[in-house]
Design goal:
With about 250 residues, this protein is of the alpha+beta class. Strand 8 and strand 9 form a beta hairpin.
């Protein structure tokens, strides 16, 4: 591993085999934290990239690099060793993003990814971004912030796999963090789903332009939540707020 100092004072890590090639460029870190390459004056006529993110140069040196997405496994944009880089889709890259510090519709946010304070209900709301073609998936609301962070970790691992960026938080097993879910006091943990005590099945309903639409009844919560998601996408497209379903329960 070699270290290169950028013109603005940051230390960048690259593999030994890439050091000589990268030395042809001046490096600087942009406002988003990514390392940008620009050819040094004396090398500008060598056919190098005019300006390109370092991680794209390293992973795709024979092409333009602009059409590919490259993810930093450890979330450190200064670590550009190839073992820390992987080519991915835009959606996979978004899954590994760090927590956002500001949410436009929330006054208070959490230090944990996927967790925000929902003022209207006075609880911690958990959502999974990048879920189902970039949509935001609804997990639930919790009375305890640590439980909420654990819930996010559980579903992020389930749906994002190796691209999941997990919260560093005191571990709770599923049966423990579920105790703090407000949904545990209702008949279903999923949005738009409730138990019909007369039939013993789960009723699914959705609101569209202030009109309540009855979707149907299903044997299990997960089937009902899936039906809700399908109808929500039909009615609202990319603006649909979906349930994040425990796929293990569908098997």
């Amino acid at each position: 591993m070699k270290e290169i100092k950028t013109i603005d004072g940051f230390i960048v890590m690259v593999d030994d085999e890439d050091y000589e090639y990268i030395s042809l460029y001046d490096l600087h870190v942009n406002k988003d934290g990514y390392v940008i390459c620009r050819p040094k004056e004396k090398y500008k006529k060598m056919g190098l990239f005019s300006s390109m993110s370092l991680h794209k140069v390293l992973m795709n040196p024979d092409k333009t690099g602009r059409s590919i997405n490259v993810d930093h496994r450890d979330g450190n944009e200064l670590n550009n060793q190839k073992q820390n880089l992987r080519i991915c889709s835009h959606q996979e890259n978004m899954r590994n993003r760090k927590p956002q510090s500001v949410y436009a519709d929330q006054e208070v946010y959490s230090e944990y990814k996927g967790v925000t304070w929902c003022k209207s209900v006075g609880k911690w709301m958990v959502q999974l971004r990048g879920f189902d073609e970039g949509r935001r998936g609804y997990i639930g609301v919790f009375t305890n912030e640590i439980a909420a962070a654990n819930a996010y970790n559980y579903y992020a691992q389930l749906h994002h796999g190796e691209f999941a960026l997990l919260n560093v938080v005191e571990y709770m097993p599923k049966e423990e963090w579920e105790k703090y879910s407000s949904s545990s006091k209702k008949t279903s943990k999923y949005r738009g789903v409730c138990l019909n005590k007369d039939t013993g099945k789960f009723l699914v309903q959705i609101y569209d332009t202030k009109k309540r639409i009855r979707i149907g009844e299903y044997e299990t919560e997960e089937e009902a939540a899936l039906a809700y998601n399908q109808k929500a996408i039909e009615l609202k497209g990319n603006k649909a707020k979906l349930n994040v379903i425990d796929e293990i329960s569908l098997k």
